[in-house]
Specification:
Elements: H1 2-34, H2 41-44, H3 52-74, H4 82-86, H5 89-122, H6 135-138, H7 141-163
């Protein structure tokens, strides 16, 4: 139950940040060019969106940090496995586990260093330039996203240890649609040409 809630929360956070950043960029661009239109200028000029670019940058950074953890869980990260696949099964299994534990260790170190940095910022009064948001909130994505990514590495390692399977992303699969649910229409199927000399 906990993992299902965490998975859904991760997906909702990434999708919400992506949608909000896209919408905000669209509004900012429309506002920028709309102020150049004479009859729109009196309405748009009093609206200040100078903070939009900074907020979009922060949202994309948060999305990237949590998206990296999502990529580990779903197996969509690019990996070079030529040498690993050349190994015998007896050697391949410990090598894969070793690489997963290295990933977990590295991201845990990054998360710990990020947590120390955020704690240091928390004790100061530093704020961002346009939003004037406390900078420790902005940089909190580093320890949170890194620790989540480390957890995902351990989760994948445990699954691989038990089942021998790694998460694999199928680019042709669409969420909610199974291959068996899509039946080809016989009327749209191409008709094979009759052999030469055959009578229809």
């Amino acid at each position: 139950m906990f993992l299902r809630i965490l998975d859904r929360l991760e997906e909702v956070l990434i999708a919400s940040l992506m949608a909000a950043a896209t919408l905000l960029i669209f509004v900012a661009v429309v506002h920028r060019y709309g102020t150049g239109v004479p009859f729109l200028y009196p309405y748009l000029h009093p609206i200040h969106l100078s903070w939009a670019q900074e907020l979009c940058i922060y949202m994309f950074v948060w999305m990237a940090k949590f998206g990296a953890a999502y990529g580990v869980r779903t197996g969509i990260h690019v990996g070079v496995d030529v040498l690993v696949n050349m190994l015998t099964p007896a050697w391949r299994r410990p090598m894969v586990l070793f690489s997963l534990f290295c990933g977990a260790f590295f991201t845990a170190v990054v998360g710990t260093m990020g947590a120390k940095f955020v704690y240091g910022l928390y004790q100061t009064d530093q704020v961002s330039a346009d939003l004037e948001m406390p900078r420790w909130i902005v940089f909190s994505c580093v320890p949170l996203g890194s620790y989540l990514m480390s957890f995902r590495f351990l989760q994948v390692a445990w699954r691989f240890f038990r089942t021998g399977e790694l998460p694999h992303h199928d680019e042709t699969r669409v969420e909610g649609i199974e291959v068996s649910d899509v039946l080809p229409d016989a009327s749209l199927a191409p008709q094979s040409a009759p052999p030469p000399g055959a009578v229809r």
